[in-house]
Amino acid sequence: MSNDIGLQQLAKEIYNYCGINFLNNISLLQSKIANRLVELALSPWEYCGFLKMEKGEWDNLIQLITINETYFFREENLLKEFKDSILPRFKEYSLSNPLRIWSAACSTGEEPYTLSMLCEESKVFGANTVKIIASDIDKKVLSKAKKGVYNKKSFSFRKMPQEMLDKYFLHLEEEYAVKDIIKDKVEFKNINLLDSNLVEKMEEMDIVFCRNVLIYFDQETIKKIIHSFYNILKPGGYLLLGHAETITGMNTGFKAIYTDSTFYYRKEG
Q: Which residues fall in a coiled-coil region (predicted)?
C-alpha cells in the first residue's frame, strides 16, 4: 500500500471525524504527522487501522493537526460591540435565568476568560447571572485552559490592556493566573463541533462565539456547524465569527448586522 493512498484515507478519516479538510493538501497532513508515524513505526495506512483500535490516539492526532494560536482581547472592535451593544440587551437576566454564552473552539482559554472579564466590566449583571461554556476538541489545550495560568512572556498577552491584567490576574513569579471572579463564570467541555448529537447535548444559548475556526472547513462542513449553532441559539440570539469569516449568502436563517467597525449575526425570531 503506497503512502499516498494511506494519507488520502487518513485525510478522509479526519474529515469525517472533525471536518478539518486535508483532502486537497496531503503534503501538509504528512508534515504534521510525520514524527508521530516514526514514533509508532507505522505507515499512514497502518495508522488508519491504529486509530480504529486505539480510540485515545485521536486525542494525539487532534493535537498535531489543529492550530491553537489565540490571545486575550483578540479583535477589539468585535469585543467592544459585544460589551457596549450586545450585553446590555440581556440586562433583565437573573440568577434563575442566567445569560448563556458559548465560546466554541476556545483553545487554551483566552477567549472565554476575555468574555468573562468583559461581562464583569459591563456592570450589567449581578453575581452568578452569566454562564460561559468554553469548548474545544483538543483535550490537552482544555487542560491548560482550566488552569488559567499563562507565562508572562506568552503571546497570549500581546493585546492585553494593562488595567485588565492588573485587575483580573494574580501576578506570580513567572506567570499570570486568572482570578477566581473570572474563572468561576467559565465551564470547560470537550466538544466536537461535528458531533451528530451536538444540539441535544448543548443547552440553549444566547450568544455563540466561534472565531477563526470556520476558515479550516469546506462549505458543506461550515453549513453543518452553522445549522447546529442556529438550533442551539435562542430566537434573537447572536453569533459572532472571526473578521475573516462570513456566512452571508448561505441561507442560514441568520441576519447580518453591520456597524462602522465590525459585523456579526442575529438569529431571526
A: none
